[in-house]
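User: Predict the full complex structure for these chains.
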Amino acid sequence: MEAARTAIAPKPPSLDALLRLGAADMAAVDALIRRHMDSPVPVIPALAEHLINGSGKRLRPLLTVAAARLAGARDDACLKLAAAVEFIHTATLLHDDVVDSSQLRRGRVAAHLIWGAPSSVLVGDFLFARAFELMVGADSMPALEILARASRVIAEGEVLQLTRAHDMDLTEEIYLDIVRAKTAELFAAAAESGAVSAGAPTERCRALRRYGQDLGLAFQLVDDALDYSGESRELGKNPGDDFREGKATLPLLLAIDRSGPSEAEFWRRTIDRREQADGDFDRVCEIMRQTGALEATLDLAQAYAESAKATLADFDPKGWRPALEELADFVVARRA
Amino acid sequence: MEAARTAIAPKPPSLDALLRLGAADMAAVDALIRRHMDSPVPVIPALAEHLINGSGKRLRPLLTVAAARLAGARDDACLKLAAAVEFIHTATLLHDDVVDSSQLRRGRVAAHLIWGAPSSVLVGDFLFARAFELMVGADSMPALEILARASRVIAEGEVLQLTRAHDMDLTEEIYLDIVRAKTAELFAAAAESGAVSAGAPTERCRALRRYGQDLGLAFQLVDDALDYSGESRELGKNPGDDFREGKATLPLLLAIDRSGPSEAEFWRRTIDRREQADGDFDRVCEIMRQTGALEATLDLAQAYAESAKATLADFDPKGWRPALEELADFVVARRA
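Assistant: Here is the predicted structure of the two-chain assembly.
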């Protein structure tokens, strides 16, 4: 009986298939990343390496490569775009950590705490510029346009988050607008630019853009849930950070909305006045479980993952497509 | 006699001829700048406007337009590049002011003191991304390559300055390396990208690049001198800032080098230990005059300006060329 049950239990979704298909491409992307983070100014490679060697999963460049190959790319222009996508992402992480005064990133002490905020700001600028040098090397103006636009939308999303982050009256709609801009846009642009550089027809480029956007939304919703799920010790950041910063993410917004008047004073103290004591975070996690706020967040993430998979319906059902379908499931099932 | 002497005295160099020739183009650049600094996120246009409406002279975009027209540009691609150049410049100013904790910029309170450092960092990123969107609109991959490379070199120069800025053993050579990267590179790229977008032959593009680089070196040397010349009340920043920050600029390096052992303790206290008192700045200005440190800095600036003018020898001697020659003289003669 025991053996039969084990045999029937579905294998949890993993990145294995995708990483196997993309192994050679991602090794080449890695080499490009390493070569382009170099500089005669010593602080630059040291700081960049600290972040790039962290526990990052390279999901975004992998998405560029996968979208390009799924769309029929035969040449290697997508590899430069993939490296550019990782540089844009790393630059935004560096600036984010300065903006949020974060302590941990990708399982390491945040760079600004080692090299100072000024170096983090300037090395972020360096990586951002390098990203555009790599894009020029890929020689696709349409791909460049997509990633330039994405970089601008991300910055807008970050500013919007900065100015509205502590607003507990934030609607789910504005929360999703912020997530769409600060996170999902880069996933969308990563996939779309890969497809565009492969010369794929407009319809396919659009489908892959939608896949990336839905995947990014699912990814961020899970990220926000993990910050409260108590299983986030494996995350490369401190669990409870969002709560301590009073950041209006969906789990918190739902918990506030769904908890009764008996909790009103608790929210006013811990979020509005940011007066937090030991045990407050555990109480929030308990409220989240009781009100179903976490479950609702993860359900929404699951819905976006399903939507992402549906956009792939017209692609070849073998090879990259099932790997990308599994990626969508992995993003929702992940624990870190 | 008085009247005759007045008649003979040469008119001080001005931007008038250049501004007259470029009036229509710069009005169009201004409209592009205004349109592209807009965003649905309210903080962004407010912060961008604060800086862009300041007392900036728009030298760099003017240089792009002038180089393009001198090189024979008939279409308006150079206008988008010019707006992009101004956005890159504004983004670096925003980040610089955060990095240096500057108080004043372009005659106004620095943006980070009004909106906070996080907003300055993120709006800088927004403007930087917008610059690349504008470049895509100009549709010249070679121009894009030049400006992407320049953006990277500027960031390297800023990091180099950050890590070496307080090193009083800095050689003149490394000081010039820093200036070449953080200031002259954007002048060089502004001119070169304009020429390249006009489809000018390589020789002419190179000449205009050298013009921009030499102009930028002259510009920064004068800037560094003005910080000590006591005539900098008209500068859009606080005179004496470099001294108070202990920044190793050429006037200071020369003053330290040329002043006798009697001043050694003065430098140790004010620069190494940064213990400054009222009257110290006046004493430095006095040492600068006595040792000729200021004069030597301005002489070097003059030499770069002459070198800049010499690069224009093969261009049409009417119209834009004399206006650019006068710009080189203006940069050295300016008082703010």
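Chain A touches chain B at residues 39-44, 91-92, 95, 98-99, 117-119, 121-126, 128-130, 132-133, 135-136, 139, 141, 144-145, 148-149, 151-152, 154-156, 158-160, 162-163 (CB under 8 Å).
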